[in-house]
Amino acid sequence: MDRVKWRRLLCTAQATDRSITGAGNGLGKAMALEFANRGSNVVIVDVDLEAAERTCAELRRERSVAAYAFRVDVSSYEQVEALVDNVYKNVGPVDVLINNAGVVGFNFLQDADEANINRMIDVNVKSVIWMTKHFLKRMIERKRGHIVSISSLAGIHPLPWATVYSTSKHAVNGFMGALTEQLRLQGHAGEIRTSCVNPYYISTRKDITDFLKKPRFGILTTEYTAKCIVEGVLRNEATITVPRFFGLGVKFMQLFPTRVQQVIRDYILREYELNSA
């Protein structure tokens, strides 16, 4: 999408156990700053309104852009439906939608309880569908828009340490791939762009850094990740992997039989020692 036309950005976030993944801090806030640097006005959606308002105040003060905060649980169909009307009535059309809300959980399947599984699917999968469904209708009417969903490297490379989380992120990749083809089939591909983002581990939360005792590669900073995402979206890339060569590595690895892939996991990636002290 032409960056001159990028006027309003909507970024979602979600509170998890009183920590914020999204606009209050972490990747969502970093993306909001990156987009604001390019002159975009920003709408931040979060269940923690105070955190969202702090980010908006910083954007208005330091970037001189318009910034708006809304309290919404994006996993709720009804709240998302009401949000769309509220945003279009009080702010205006949304040019770029960023589905950033997410819940992270490092568990083997037998250790994951029902409540956490349901919450992860609700936030990581359903919120992407609900937000996209409601905003897509308005974008089609305007014949203009860009939908971005933050997935994970775990969405293209199954992560054994986080079975349900990896499942939810594979769902996001599948959804965005299908959506891209739907828009092409319906004749909207030239008007509405899509981007699915697959980053490596990011230092957004203490539970992530605490879990990663021996990561094979260095953990990404939020600033670096946000910069890569914004640049990829500006280039209208359908798939954005951070770092870029990780995506190429996964594609190359998938060319081999499962047994060979497992050898790579054990002796090159050394996934078995990821959580080893």
TrEMBL record:
Pfam families: adh_short. InterPro entries: NAD(P)-bd_dom_sf (IPR036291), SDR_fam (IPR002347). It comes from the Eukaryota. SUPFAM superfamilies: NAD(P)-binding Rossmann-fold domains (SSF51735). Signal peptide: none annotated. Belongs to the short-chain dehydrogenases/reductases (SDR) family. This is Hydroxysteroid 17-beta dehydrogenase 11. It comes from Aedes albopictus (Asian tiger mosquito). The lineage of its organism: Eukaryota, Metazoa, Ecdysozoa, Arthropoda, Hexapoda.
